[in-house]
Specification:
11 helices; 9 strands; 21% strand
Length: 291
């Protein structure tokens, strides 16, 4: 069975620890946060894992449904990992992907609403209010094809051509194959993203090849597809004889507290991006500016 997951960590788990040619993995713990770094180095490894070559950082945290704290080790770890991926200079465009009207898909637009946009602030104005170290940041939530009639990639390419950022940071909801990782995992990657891939509706990739600039993707799994969930639950029961209805492959399952998960996850991701970009401001200062 082809398990649907956007997480490189889960793809690595599925191929098994013995099949590591072209793949490196390292795990460390910082307080209640677990960090796994996976590098896919060769085309053959990329094919086995069904993920592009590059670096994937997975941060596992206490579930957002039970832990609403933002200003703790989660924020420090996420902002630190994002900062390592960012170019040192230039404008950064933050893109919130997804449909804000559908709760499991609203992570990107909600995270974008917390971004501190500064590209429009002149150096003179920044200096007059004591914010001389502000980095130029632009943010947008382009919606989805069904709302706009325009491919997301077309919108972003147009903006990139116009404002010429040094980097694009995308935020999107992902799919996981494990229930335990819904609302408790953040994946970051330097390989870009295919919007909608988590729900089987992948659009054209957003990456350095298509946009001409580095693309960093950040996501939180909010759904599991029905077939994957059924297999996972039956496997736990150690049932040897079962079948999965084909219709289940088109069904996406999400936790009942998804509204709370998305709200807390989007706030954490948005604040982590801000902290990574605006090194001269404290998290408290940033929260006061975006709230």
């Amino acid at each position: 069975m082809n398990f649907r997951t956007d997480l490189a960590l889960e793809r690595h788990e599925l191929i098994g620890k013995d099949d590591t040619e072209g793949v490196s993995s390292h795990t460390e713990n910082k307080g209640n946060v677990k960090i796994t770094r996976i590098e896919i180095r060769t085309p053959s490894a990329a094919e086995r894992l069904s993920k592009p070559q590059g670096n994937y950082i997975t941060v596992e945290v206490p579930s957002f449904s039970s832990d609403g704290e933002i200003l703790d080790s989660k924020l420090h770890v996420l902002s630190s990992e994002i900062r390592k991926m960012l170019p040192d200079e230039g404008t950064v465009l933050v893109v919130g992907l997804g449909n804000i009207s559908i709760t499991p898909d609203a992570l990107g637009p909600k995270a974008a609403s917390y971004i501190l946009a500064t590209r429009h602030i002149s150096s003179e104005l920044a200096k007059s209010v004591g914010l001389t170290s502000l980095r130029s940041v632009a943010g947008i939530s382009p919606g989805v094809l069904g709302q706009t009639g325009i491919e997301t990639g077309e919108i972003i390419r147009g903006i990139v051509d116009r404002i010429k950022p040094s980097c694009v940071v995308t935020v999107d909801a992902l799919a996981s194959r494990n229930l335990s990782r819904l609302g408790s995992t953040v994946q970051m990657s330097d390989t870009g993203i295919s919007p909608g891939s988590g729900v089987g509706n992948a659009r054209k990739r957003l990456d350095e090849e298509t946009l001409g600039v580095k693309v960093i993707s950040i996501g939180v799994p909010t759904v599991v597809d029905g077939a994957t969930l059924a297999h996972d639950l039956i496997d736990r029961e150690k049932s040897a004889d079962y079948s999965v209805l084909p219709e289940s492959e088109e069904m996406m399952v999400t936790p009942k507290e998804i509204d709370l998960l998305v709200e807390r996850a989007s706030k954490l991701v948005g604040l982590a991006i801000n902290c990574a970009l605006q090194k001269g401001l404290s998290p408290e200062e940033i929260m006061s500016l975006v709230s």
